[in-house]
Design a protein that fits this description.
Shape of chain A: elongated
Number of domains of chain B: 2
Number of helices of chain B: 8
Strand order of the largest sheet of chain A: 1-5-6-12-11-10-7-9-8
Largest sheet of chain B: 9 strands, mixed
CATH topology of the largest domain in chain A: BirA Bifunctional Protein, domain 2
CATH superfamily of the largest domain in chain A: Bira Bifunctional Protein, Domain 2
CATH superfamily of the largest domain in chain B: Periplasmic binding protein-like II
Number of helices of chain A: 14
Radius of gyration of chain B: 20 Å
CATH class of the largest domain in chain B: Alpha Beta
Structural class of chain A: alpha+beta
Oligomer: heterodimer
Order of helices and strands of chain B: EHEEHEHEEHEHEHEHH
Strand order of the largest sheet of chain B: 2-3-1-4-9-5-8-6-7
Helix content of chain B: 25-40%
CATH class of the largest domain in chain A: Alpha Beta
CATH architecture of the largest domain in chain A: 2-Layer Sandwich
Largest interface: A-B, 23 and 29 residues
Number of domains of chain A: 2
Number of strands of chain B: 9
CATH architecture of the largest domain in chain B: 3-Layer(aba) Sandwich
Radius of gyration of chain A: 28 Å
Structural class of chain B: alpha/beta
Distance between the termini of chain A: 54 Å
Largest sheet of chain A: 9 strands, mixed
Strand content of chain B: 25-35%
Strand content of chain A: 15-25%
């Protein structure tokens, strides 16, 4: 190798990175209240998923590239993070969880009868195109997959379960946009256009551009019936679900389009039964990754947020690419975007660590540490300072941490000496059992500075 | 209905400058109560009934406001929209602000096959639009960013050619340049934020109905 022309790692084009706070674009770092909030949201969502019978599955962070890319990510393969293992084989950081679940079910679970319900939470990695909206490379997702049912009941369950997940986060003001891969797919069958033409049609659908659609119609010389379907395509969207389905029926060009509408009609009846039909916007000109989705597709939107909060759909063809074929449907929520949605409903908040219930000055006494250990087992949070401090020093520390109780252990008397307390009458020395009672009592009454954190959520056990 | 849950009026982003008067005239012809920004120093103005809020910004910022949801609807030139490359809905165009983006240069370039040139230098303020177009044409070109007076570039030897907006062609002529090829036919396009089109469906549709060319009043 000609080392003269080889740049040192990181390249010589940029100045040495002197700013150590600098992170790569598109990753997230959360502190204190923010970290707690995201964890609470994740817990709330996952707890909801589990109450619907979904079992947690833990999936690998990276897999063999040829396993995933050729089977599932042909369309997005240029957006994957790739690297090599010791033997030179390509590995990819998981770009989504669904493919991994499909591989797992298609291979290891091939011998078992379904259905399977899986839920998961974790990060996925993609170079996201900079559509001007947001640059993200690490996405934290919580998702569910229902494998083994082709019935619309399964699609409805996924939507209702995700809706319940959002409700558990107090984000109940969502909208669900539902489309169907077979309506567009059937239209393409009927037109039989060249691939380049299809791209133009997809562009028109994606941008809802009447101008681009008119140009496509001119170029593909449709029959009068096809023309009517195309010219009305962009109007087949809205919240009037029943009316839309009726109108769309008049524009079907083949069985595939008809079956898409039949499927959607069934689905909307079920969503009505689940009580979420009023949240649904139907869009038959919705175009999403056709290599992946074979039936219903959907997106969740939250008010005042331009980025989608969640998405998913039916992917009956995917598992068969790995092994025994089965129908499946699933969806994910973007936890980072849920964090932003919660923040959008609040005034900005200064970040600080959570105040402990009690701060104890440095002690190496086994008696004291055992007593503190017992209290911690009951869920009380107690910080033992690790370095020696004077009495005034530990008081200052307690104030800055906003601890409700500040105490020192006295080895001679075997007493805790309470130096400061939210209930001032308790300041003074006390034995182990009184100290324990005090802390338990304080925890129960929550006499403290009220916690600045957000609204309590269903899964608030963090 | 979803629209009821939104806390602020429908926000519309208007461009300052060249397109401002034409757009405002078109909206008023559609029966919309567009406030007069020249009479105020405020950057946001509400309609008398409080249902709409208009903001005025640099034309290149209109797509940015709309894609991020800072505004629900915006009016932009197709040239600006393609240059900004943002992911928004663009339901229809309006017959105003009509112009074209062209490749231009000294007359001697008329006879040159650009595909055969090895190192073509092109000055423009539309760097993304120009690069995309050269790629689509299979022409290798180095695009140089200028923020104005682009015609100066070939005159000073900064570049061989330019990609620029042409309305009448008089500026080109005055500087001894000629149009070589059409890059884009531009006009005003109405753009809509993707989420707003779902979350404020009724308001957005009502507004689009007033602005659509050929609708009563417009």
């Amino acid at each position: 190798m000609n080392t003269e022309n080889t740049l040192p790692a990181g390249g010589a084009r940029r100045p040495e990175a002197t700013n150590r706070r600098h992170l790569p674009l598109g990753v997230r770092e959360y502190l204190w209240q923010d970290a707690r909030l995201r964890q609470q949201l994740e817990t709330a969502v996952n707890r909801t998923f589990r109450t619907w019978g979904y079992n947690t599955v833990i999936l690998p962070m990276f897999e063999f590239g040829d396993m995933l890319t050729t089977r599932t990510h042909a369309a997005t393969h240029d957006r994957l993070y790739r690297f090599l293992d010791m033997e030179g084989r390509t590995l990819i950081l998981r770009p989504d969880m669904t493919a991994a679940v499909a591989r797992l079910v298609g291979t290891r679970l091939a011998g078992m009868e379904g259905p399977f319900r899986f839920c998961y939470a974790g990060s996925v990695f993609r170079h996201e195109e900079t559509s001007g909206l947001e640059y993200q490379q690490e996405f934290r997702q919580a998702g569910i997959e229902l494998v083994g049912s082709a019935d619309a009941m399964a699609d409805a369950e996924i939507l209702a379960c995700m809706a319940a997940g959002l409700n558990a986060c107090n984000l109940s003001d969502f909208r669900i946009v539902v489309g169907h891969a077979d309506y567009y797919g059937g239209l393409l069958d009927a037109l039989g256009p060249q691939p380049s033409d299809a791209r133009q049609l997809r562009w028109a659908m994606h941008r809802k551009s009447e101008h681009a659609l008119a140009r496509f119609v001119e170029s593909c010389r449709p029959s009068p019936r096809q023309r009517a379907t195309l010219e009305n395509l962009l109007t087949l969207q809205g919240a009037d679900v029943a009316g839309l389905l009726e109108r769309a029926a008049g524009f079907c060009l083949n069985r595939r389009m008809e079956s898409a509408l039949r499927n959607l009609r069934e689905l909307t009846e079920l969503l009505d039964a689940y009580g979420i039909l009023e949240r649904v916007t139907l869009d038959l000109a919705e175009y999403r990754n056709l290599e992946y989705y074979t039936g219903t597709t959907f997106e969740f939107l939250l008010p005042d947020s331009a980025a989608v909060a969640g998405s998913g759909g039916r992917y009956d063809g995917l598992i068969g690419k790995f092994g025994r074929s089965r129908p499946a449907v699933g969806g994910i929520l973007h936890l980072d975007r849920l964090v932003r949605a919660v923040h959008a409903n609040q005034a900005p908040q200064a970040l600080s660590p959570k105040p402990p219930l009690c701060l104890v000055g440095q002690t190496k006494s086994g008696v004291a540490l055992e007593s503190i250990g017992k209290l911690r087992q009951q869920g009380l949070d107690i910080v033992v300072h690790t370095d020696p401090l004077s009495e005034s020093g530990i008081l200052d520390m307690g104030r800055s941490l906003e601890a409700r109780v500040v105490a020192d252990w006295c080895d001679q008397t075997q007493f805790f000496h309470v130096l400061a307390c939210a209930l001032p009458e308790y300041v003074g020395p006390m034995d182990l059992s009184r100290f324990e009672q005090l802390l338990e009592g304080l925890q129960r009454t929550e006499l403290s500075v009220p916690e600045q954190s957000t609204t309590r959520m269903a899964g608030d056990d963090v | 209905m979803s629209d009821a849950t939104c806390r602020r009026p429908l926000r519309i982003s208007l461009p300052k400058g060249r397109l401002a008067d034409d757009v405002a005239r078109h909206l008023r012809a559609g029966g919309l109560d567009v406030p007069d920004f020249s009479a105020s120093r405020q950057l946001t103005l509400r309609t008398a009934d409080g249902t709409q809020e208009y903001i005025q910004s640099k034309p290149t910022d209109v797509p940015t406001f709309v894609v991020h949801g800072g505004a629900d609807i915006g009016f932009s030139g197709l040239d600006t929209l393609r240059e900004e490359g943002v992911d928004v809905l663009e339901p229809f165009t309006l017959p105003i602000g009509i112009c074209r983006i062209s490749l231009a240069g000294p007359p001697a370039w008329r006879d040159v096959d650009l595909h055969l040139k090895d190192h073509l230098r092109v000055a423009t303020k539309y760097t993304r639009l120009a690069s995309d177009w050269f790629v689509s044409q299979g022409i290798n070109a180095e695009v140089i960013k200028l923020n104005g007076s682009v015609e100066l570039a070939p005159l000073t030897g900064l570049s061989d050619l330019i990609v620029d907006l042409v309305e009448t062609g008089r500026t080109l002529q005055a500087n001894g340049l000629v149009e070589l090829q059409h890059v884009l036919d531009s006009r005003v396009v109405i753009i809509v934020n993707r989420s707003a089109s779902r979350l404020r469906e009724n308001e957005v549709n009502r507004f689009l109905g007033c602005v659509r060319p050929g609708s009563p009043g417009a």
